[in-house]
Automatic annotation (TrEMBL):
This is Acetyl-CoA synthetase-like protein. Pfam families: ACAS_N, AMP-binding. NCBIfam families: ac_ac_CoA_syn. PANTHER family: ACETOACETYL-COA SYNTHASE (AFU_ORTHOLOGUE AFUA_8G04770) (PTHR42921:SF4), ACETOACETYL-COA SYNTHETASE (PTHR42921). Residues 43-98 form the Acetyl-coenzyme A synthetase N-terminal domain. It comes from Glarea lozoyensis (strain ATCC 20868 / MF5171). GO terms for molecular function: acetoacetate-CoA ligase activity. Gene3D superfamilies: 3.30.300.30, N-terminal domain of ligase-like.
Amino acid sequence: MASTEMSTPKKLWEHPNPRGTEMYRLMGEINEKYGLRLETFWDLYQYSITQRSQFWDQTFQYLQLIHSGTYTRVVDESAAIETIPRWFEGVHLNFAENILYSRAGASSKRGTKYKEDAKLALTEVREGATEIRDVSWGQLRREVGELAAAMKIHGVKKGDRVVVVASNSVDTMKVFLAVTTLGGLFSSSSTDMGVQGVLQRTLQVTPKYIFMDDFAIYNGKKVDLRGKMKAIVEGMKDAPGFTGMISMPRFSEPADISGVPRTQTVAHFVSKAKGSPPPEFEQVAFHDPFFIAYSSGTTGTPKCIVHSVGGFLLSSAKETRLHGELTPDSVTLQYTTTGWIMYFVSVVNLLVGARSVLYDGSPFQPDLTTFVKLIGDQKVTKLGTSPKWMFEMQKNGIRPREIADLSHLTNVSSTGMVLSDQQFEWFYNEGFSKDVHLCNISGGTDLAGCFGQENPLTPVYVGGTQGPSLGTPISVYDSLIPSGQGSPIPHGEPGELVAPSAFPNMPVFFWNDPAVSPSPDSRYFNAYFAKYTSVWTHGDFVYIHPVTKQLFFLGRADGVLNPSGVRFGSAEIYSILEGGEFPEVQDSLCVGQRRPGDEDESVMLFLLMNKGHGLSTSLVQRVRDAIGKGLSKRHVPRWIFETPEIPTTVNLKKVELPVKQIVSGKIIKPSGTLLNPKSLEYYYRFAKVEELESGLVKRDNDHDPSYEPENLKKSSTTHFKRPLKILTAITSLTSLLTFALLITTYIFIATGPFTYTSSSRDATRDLAIVLATLTLLTTPRLFLPLPPLIPLTTDLVLAIVTLVFAPRLLDNGWPDTSFCYRYRPYDPSRGYQEPLPETRECVLARGRVRVMVCVGGLVGVAIGLLGVMMAILRIWGLIKSRFWEGRVLGGKGGKGWKGLGDGFEVSFTLRVVGPGERRGEERSVEGGRGRRGG
């Protein structure tokens, strides 16, 4: 659709007092300082990306970070983005100091305003809203100081890495702040990640220490982690610089770790520093590294993405205060694990003096309402969640605003997956108050921030994110251009999200990169800059609304669906399925399939069903109708299957790319970041989708599929497939040889001195007819592609001919038949004479021929019965498909109709023009159980 034809989405929310927001105040300061007349968010955004130095200078001053040193230049705006230009050179600061204290006057002076000793900083909550523990600012500062002192005594210093494998807890927070107090680098993984996944990351960053929980709890189950601790220590035995593991107690009683080598309890570790004063905050340069995050690693070794302390602090302060309106009175709850980039939101929310609620466990235990009640009980003002959580609320008919007192809640942010239009509507119509700001955000681990997010100056409309993030330039490039000089496309057209200019929170480098950034040989360069010249390629498939300027995320660019040249994102399919129309569907996965040799891409949709439901003909029809109506017929998947499990990361983000590669014929190594790596094994069968023995679902939107999995799975006919093919080949070959022999015999008799008796003549004729029919109807099917209705016709003809003539062969083969030849004397003047009486040779010949005739009759009956069975099955398959609803145009049977054995596949391929379609819009219709042939 052209951009000018797009309608304005429905408005859902608007800020009651935009002029009272910090973003508006910053805009006023910029106007006053530079004599400008910026009035709207879009004015401010355009200024922030065209005058980057001015904007970031003013923002840095406005946000009041604790720092030392001065700068003469914000950034070299002329530097290409791939050179990774440095920001605020000359500034030094410390992450932990900015979290634990607030600035008081001069840039380097710290105080405790909004972070007073008695004020609560953290609230730790375990699964099911149990074991609630409050921690004040004074207590947090004291305990972080003790742990930092212990780390210093144990040799941790600036630049050292410390890894945490733990839950979202106060203890994890203390490790983070203690490490960064000393100028070290923090990195974390969640406890539900497998040993391989942890080691894939940890071995790359070679930490000095690993802090790990001794137990975990999730979905009501207590998990002993000591076996995993032991395996990780064993995997780290040859890692340079690794000193040992520190065990953190998950429950009140620490686990016995005597069986885990090179491991001590955190209590023993800290006791070494008893009485030692807390160390000074190590001042590091603005661009110095302070934490390492990891890419998903779903298609290879995870990339170790290193972020700078200054870039992260500045960007996070901008996002939380200017975009998110966080204040010292805010109470935040970001649902996350420590293995996700959103964990750092739980930490950075402390920057403004807000209280952070750290939740560990499933938000669905012990029931779906407990987590909602916790939000009310803790008086949460800003909730961070995901579309998955909202979908579960919507699907189960839970209205959070009716479950708990959510009067304090002002903001709900959603990220991790695309938030569907239906969820926007549900949020305000049923889920939450119309006064709550729904903040749909998207960015990622790569920038530890957002490309698209909320803002208080523009309305919230249905779909997408409100707009871009201030100071972060974005554009949409034509994704059909494979490389080189990219081409921006107009608003309203989907393409690839790029950043054409540098921004402060770009990674500083990749740890363990074989080449130094920004070398073209580095993993960093190839991750972001290899596709288009001098722009950051983020890998998302997006478009910008031409009227509202919302940024719509349609899925990953490497997962774009492209059947017949029509490009769309999987999120468009998910939005239909998550609209509440399909309560029997728990989740879905939509990928493209294009194998070597495929002329076009096919769209595959996998449905995960709720308990008690199965994929049925009627459901498939409803799904296809809904997609066709809600999007277009071109969006309707060619194949729809039920799946037992959808692969996800440990952060519960569904994974598309590995499945896309698998169904396209590749063999991949599962990533350690997958929560359920074995789930990928199920999808390998779909690389040969035409040969599946589970239901195939056609793509055409006007025809019902021949798909009844509950019946098809019970069928045992496929067990005969291989024997029937062998029988067909042997019978056809024997028929050819025998038929050739009979023709030779007829020629010999017609020209020689022999004759047949009448019964012999009848038997020979019958045998010839059967063998000729068998040969003509079976042999071509072994080697030639035939029109789709030929197999049915040949089965019927073969059955009729053999069942008529085979009994006569059996009758003529019994002992009373004078089946032989007799010699006829030849007279030159009169020709051949009457045959002589029967001879001994005639008797012997009769015995040999009798055997041949009897065998031929038995084979004929068997082949005839098989033909009848196959004809019945074919007719049944066509009836189930209701093929007469379309007009048959002809066409070939795919790769050919391969023999009698395929007859038991009950399959067909028709090219159909349905009602209302033009001939130029023909669609392929596949039904049945497996091959296109047969």
